[in-house]
Amino acid sequence: MGNESSLTSAIEVEASRRVERYTLALLPDRLSGGDNAPTGLQSWPSLSADKCISLEWNPGSPIAARTLIIAAENRIEQVNEAILVCDPPSIRTTVADLSMAKVEVLVNDYIKGWFFLVKELAAVFRTRGGGVIALVYPDAAEIAGDKDDTVDLLGSTALAAFRALTRGLLAAAFSEPYHTLGFAGTEAGDDAGFASFIFKQLDEGNRRNSGKLHKYGKTGFFR
């Protein structure tokens, strides 16, 4: 699951190389797009039609989070790994020009949606006694601009909420029967390398990796 971005696309490409089937649910880019922006998978290019099972997701609804997991398991029998990708667009605006509609989108899609989904995944994996939740986000240092540059009010807020959610889940991972891993990309521009790094850690299946935030950057790998 993830929002429409090059990072989400790179992770899907890597998944298509490694698994027989996978499900994909997307957050539409309703922050940088207009109110009538395409939703879900309508604007997403098909990368592997024979392997990818596309699912619709209404992130602002707790019932939809449960329905999404049920739909995935109905199609692929069992969800073993869930990769959540938060790579929100940068929305630079002044407070005076802030769109109230986009604030609603921010809260529903990029904050409530992830919390609802994680809660449902945790319940499923806890009952089953195993599984993997991987939380992925870019964490490159923001490039400093001029003092008059407009601040990214929405994208940075969405990312901060997801980062906080990730750290909270990692802190509680040792008391759970399933694995929780965090992945932060510390440099921009290498989505393919970051995606490959993520799947390398998942393929290892090392229990000791649970609860850790794995960082990827061009200068090296850090755990």
Overview of this structure, please?
With 223 residues, this protein is of the alpha/beta class. It has a single domain, classed as Rossmann fold, CATH 3.40.50.720. The chain is 40% helix and 17% strand. It has 5 helices and 8 strands; from the N terminus they run βαββαβαβαβαββ. The strands form 2 sheets. The chain has a 5-stranded mixed sheet with strand order 4-5-6-7-8, with helices on both faces. Strand 4, helix 3 and strand 5 form a beta-alpha-beta unit. Helix 1 packs across helix 5, helix 2 crosses helix 3 and helix 3 runs parallel beside helix 4. The protein is globular. 31% of the residues are buried. About 4% of the residues have low confidence.
Q: Gist?
A:
By secondary structure, this protein is α/β, with parallel strands linked by helices. It is built from five helices and eight strands; from the N terminus they run βαββαβαβαβαββ.
